[in-house]
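Anyone else keep sequences and structure tokens together like this?

Example one:
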Amino acid sequence: MSAPPRETFRRIAANLATVMHGQELAIRRLLAAFASAGHVLLEDYPGTGKTTLAKALARSIGATFKRVQFTPDLLPSDILGVSVFDPRDQTFRFHEGPVFTHILQSALLEAMAESQVSVDGASTRLPELFFVIATQNPVEFRGTYPLPEAQMDRFAMQFGLGYVDPAEEVAILADQAERHPLDALTACVSLEEVLGLRQGVRRIRVSDEVKRYAVDLVRATRTAPGVQLGASPRASLALIGAAQALALFDGQDFVTPEHVQELAVAVIAHRLALDPQARFSGATAVSVVEEIVKTIAVPA
């Protein structure tokens, strides 16, 4: 018998916490995006556990995990796959690339937006449970390229893990004294239960007032001073979907304005492009969204 959706979340979160010390907030955000069928961009310093978190999620749900290293010489066929001629029967056979997986550490356009890839004029569906965790280091810019706005808009959220406090860092040293705890991590839920979790998220009620509140937050970015490019309607969809997930995690059957506020920066900020003068003056996308959250009236 499948576990209730909230119990599925609780099991996954507890499993991840055995590997990711002091990262309860990051786990909550990651699972909110995952449960609402969004994708995540993790940006943080090297060694903070970004890849470990991605692998731990895959192992926790018994899913396949693949990783794509984006380099300047990478070709589409290296990701999507390629049709290879088979001389035995004189036909072309499609060999799947690493994008055909459940959990992918990477960043892709069509795959993320439509859960399919197009090769040789034909579209091929990806697994029903397809989740991208892209990672980047904010200090490593030599030989790398900033993601275009269209790509950034495909991510439901962007956030970092940050450094843990000294006590948690000591616990990490103790855990890895003999072997990495990831090696002992096993699945705590089934893929069917994960799909049930996503269905449960979609059943969480959202009032018209809360929907309008989310839209008002997103729309305000389009006229905010110093913003060249505001957030698209895709941000509104991601904000409501992730807020539904948080409500389910918190044992509520409806979304509150507080759920929307909790996620506003993670969902909206990375989609904004500021003009040079605003950046020179010290403004950031995060500060813009934080100010909008302070000024937009909260529904009663």
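And example two:
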Amino acid sequence: MRVVTGIVLFVLLLGHSFAQNYPTKPPKIVVGYPPGGSGDFTTRIIADELSKELGVTFVVENKPGAGGSIASEYVAKSAPDGYTILNQGNHAYNRVMYKDLSYSDKDFIPVSRVANGATLLVVGQNSQFQSLKELIAFAKANPGKLFNASAGFGSAPHVAACAFEAAAGIKITSVQFKGGGPAAQSLLAGDTQMMFATSPTVTGFIQAGRMRPFLVSIAKGSPSIPNVPGGDAAGVPGFQSTFWFGLYVPAGTPQPIVRRLHAAAAKALSKPEVQQKIAAQGMDALPSASPEAFADEIRAEAPEIERALKGCGAKIE
């Protein structure tokens, strides 16, 4: 018994010593989406801030594909030493969307949420619709004939569009693209008539006058996206659909390292200037109270995500 206790104590002390020296080389944060969207944006801002807090450059690595599954699988199989970190949403999305995933929740330790976001319903600047009321009226009169540009099955914009259909009592046709960028180009070209998108994807087009926002997917609106009504004010009561990104490390990563990363992320995300940068992209900085609290939040919302995706008729690929 004393031998076992001694071994446990040695491992704990070793982990603590390792964490005190961590990091001694540049860690990388892997994100499963291409540059330009909310996943890439949140990864780059948290990488920059962790670099400042921990004194070593955190490198961003984009591994897009399969709704983030390629990146998740890569991190799940990486050494549990704190040098390979994942920035991703809830894995429940991909559990519904993809068969035979080679990873599961048990392959990760959640560290901290980075930011929450909402999607925007936008139309092209030259759209025939001058208001959300007109768009809904058209959809009711022409079921399935309103074409929505979607960032892909199971994406946050796709889930938002499904929730909007249910709340507004309409039927639209979502055309699936490989990401928000191609979906936006479809809307700009006039091939589709509306689009739910993450704020970083369309903010530039809105500011340039090429798109018009009708709605933000938070019932009461979002202070980070001013002058755009939420569902209640826009005449779609109760409509809400949000998403988030957060940090994970491979299972087996020493707890002292997990806590060091969490503390650094929480401190960084509490800075007013960082919060302002995130708000400028239509998102809200929201660090978790602890790694355990983050894990509890992930588990609690998983059933709701699964119900929403199945209600969308999301395809399993």
